[in-house]
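User: Could you check the structure of this?
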Amino acid sequence: MSRRIPRLPSWLPFDAYLPALAATVALAALLPTRGTAADVAGGASTGAVALLFFLYGARLSTAEVLDGLTHWRLHLTVLACTFVVFPLLGLASVPLVPYVLTPELQAGFLFLCLVPSTIQSSIAFTSIARGNVPAAICAGSLSSLAGILVTPLLAALLLGSTGGGFSAGSLLTIVFQLLVPFLAGQLLRRWVGGFLARHQKVLGLVDRAAILLVVHTAFSEGTVAGVWHQVTPARLAALLAAEAVLLALMLTLSWYGARRLGFGRADRIAIQFAGSKKSLAAGLPMASVIFGAHASLAVLPLMLFHQMQLMVCAVMAKRRSRDPGEPPFREGPAAAAASGPLSDPAVTVGR
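Assistant: Sure, the predicted structure tokens are below.
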């Protein structure tokens, strides 16, 4: 008799891309690029970051974001969670240095608190939990749009010299490497949007390859600089514990805070899942620009938090889908079309 191979539930957030990220980090630790190869990889990484933000700009519909602003209280709540509450909790980690976290890991922990929210996984989990999917679409898009400016400014303000400072050079780097490509994508969206929509799968692979290049370049620089002796198993366990506390606090504050503000169940679900997420796809290239040669340890907390939030939120979304007593939010055709392909969070990268 043939035995059936047990299969993981479709809602379990296993993403084959995550082992690829881990393998890229391991390769950079064992065989880092050096010398001329490092210069070439650095130039390619700079181009990859510009390409990523061009594609983000070309894909993001500003008109849809503006149309959804009628639900302004919800969107202000999500933005407050992302860019006010999260950074305050990140600042609360300062006393953990040097007893629990190293200064570099704490800077990375604070940086993850400054990154914008996700779009795809927020929509996917909101849809699974029977929440307000159109609100999640708009909230995630608005957070990504605001993060282009807000994240670098908060990093310059809160990270100081650790993040490269708030110098004219860092400002020009942020403008030309992040903002200009993003605005170019927005301006050209009318002409390239259809092409991007038709080739979404191929361009998704381009996105992922670009991020892997950024990760390899950042971790190669860290290996050459000898930073990995700071990441002991005890430090890593402490970082994971701090991130677990951070995620638990944000999930709790976003849910009960939204209820205190008078939001209904469907809106609270959208607020919780959009307000507790951090985008790996936006955060990694931003870190490479903001931290430069120190980006390796800066992105490690974000990479770990990304997987943690997927696992925890997938379980929560499945349980919320069985909540009794309140009817599910009824989506319009456009929202259903937007959320349909994303119903399985395993295919998202947390953009």
